[in-house]
Design a protein that fits this description.
Oligomer: single chain
Structural class: alpha/beta
Number of strands: 7
Distance between the termini: 36 Å
Largest sheet: 7 strands, mixed
Number of helices: 9
Radius of gyration: 19 Å
Order of helices and strands: HEHEHEEHEHHEHHHE
Shape: globular
Length: 261
């Protein structure tokens, strides 16, 4: 959607710029979504580098296939990032998974599979939602905070999508536990709006989850929620803070860092 894709691109650009793409020969991307980041990564690779772009959702795979059609040495297919069946050990030298590790049922399995399919010296890049709350992630905390203040039921989620990004040291240790050696993390804001509260609300409502949830309320309550969200968003922008999601980027090396450069 217009709300999600800019966020993914903002964060994904940090990842691909740090993977030394000009040296890559065999690249795997998991959870590619519609393929917008895949296109940018492909342009950074040598023409003879091979790239496999995957997603768990057949619908996303079809969108990515259309977007990547005609690009050299690029395949698109369906894959489960937690169980990369049919992919041999050490078959890639770069791995990308943008804003998906916190969503999968078993993040540790996904990390182990990333480690397994990377060759020694290979580099993996992940990103996850970072710190929650209006101070750090107003774009993704606005609705939950508004619902709480109005005494309305929160959106039902089995697990908070911020669950991996609250503790950098714990996240690095989790990645090392999968086998990686050098692991570096840093926070990066994914800005979605810096000018207009109404523009933010308009694009926010196009997200499938939030839009569908707000439709469960009656018209009067829904208008109350949107009015409160707009006022909060206006105040945030007026204070000089952008509407953004805090994210954590993870760059991890299989084995020696020196072997990957």
């Amino acid at each position: 959607s217009q709300h999600v894709e800019p966020i993914a691109l903002n964060v994904g650009r940090y990842i691909i710029s740090l993977l030394k793409p000009e040296l890559a020969e065999r690249v795997l991307e998991c959870s590619c979504g519609s393929g917008s980041l895949s296109c940018e990564l492909r342009r950074l690779l040598r023409a003879d580098a091979n790239m496999l772009v995957t997603d768990f959702s057949p619908n996303m795979v079809e969108l990515a296939r259309r977007r990547l059609c005609g690009l050299p040495n690029t395949e698109v297919g369906t894959a489960n990032a937690c169980d990369l069946q049919g992919m041999a050990d050490g078959s890639f030298d770069r791995y990308v998974a943008n804003l998906s590790l916190m969503l999968v049922p078993d993040p540790d399995a996904m990390l182990r599979e990333a480690f397994r399919v990377l060759a020694p010296g290979g580099i993996a890049g992940f990103s996850v939602w970072g710190r929650a709350g209006l101070a750090d992630s107003p774009s993704h905390s606005l609705l939950p905070e508004t619902l709480k203040e109005l005494g309305l039921a929160p959106m039902s989620t089995a697990r908070d999508n911020f669950h991996l990004g609250q503790d950098d040291a714990a996240l690095r240790e989790r990645v090392r536990a999968a086998g990686f050696g050098q692991v570096v993390t840093f926070h990066a804001p994914a800005v979605t709006e810096a000018i207009s509260a109404s523009c933010f609300i308009e694009t926010f409502l196009q997200t499938a989850t939030a839009g569908a949830y707000l439709k469960t309320f009656g018209a009067a309550v829904r208008e109350q929620v949107l009015s409160a969200m707009t006022a909060k968003c206006s105040a945030i922008l007026a204070s000089g803070q952008a509407m953004a999601l805090d994210t954590v980027v993870v760059i991890a090396v299989k084995g020696s860092l020196r072997a990957s450069v």
